[in-house]
Amino acid sequence: MRKIIVLTFITLDGVMQAPGGPEEDTSGGFKYGGWTVPYFDDFAGKIMNEQMKRPFDLLLGRKTYEIFAGYWPSHEKEWPGINEATKYVASHDASLKLDWDNSVLLAEDVAEEVKKLKAQNGPDLQVHGSGNLIQTLLKHDLVDELWLKIFPITLGSGKRLFAEGTIPGAFKLTQNLTSPNGVIIANYKRAGDVKTGSF
Known about the structure:
The chain is an alpha/beta fold. Helices cover 20% and strands 25% of the residues. The longest helix has 12 residues, at 42-53.
């Protein structure tokens, strides 16, 4: 059984859109692309390197796949194993051409395809970016862990991690660190149903 792990940079108000650069994703008129850059320090970089070194395959939405495919094939030294890893790509376009080595298109019922992937033996499936895909995974309760980097900034608008796909669910904190620049590294794993009570 494989786990699905969502690795996401988010703001205090839950925005995950275009963390890496001004032109990464300007949809909806988003004008704050690259908002992680002023806060990203060696501490956060070390955490990312540790997480990216684990055995993995990738589960990506089409837009994130295209961004990754335009960069990582020629920068493998920065992410060892990225080219050998299997890249599963969710897209509504069944004719989408995937030129990056070891890429597999998931164009049918994505939730069902992902359930089949989870049931297989193999490395965990890491999800980076891929906001629309994450909503599908959350809606079908397919996310096993959230590895969040929470940045000390609010943006007010933009695509959010917890949007229309979110269902009620409990999570358990498994790691909690803070960088010198105030970035909170918080890892959570799925922990059953929401429990309620009263004071």
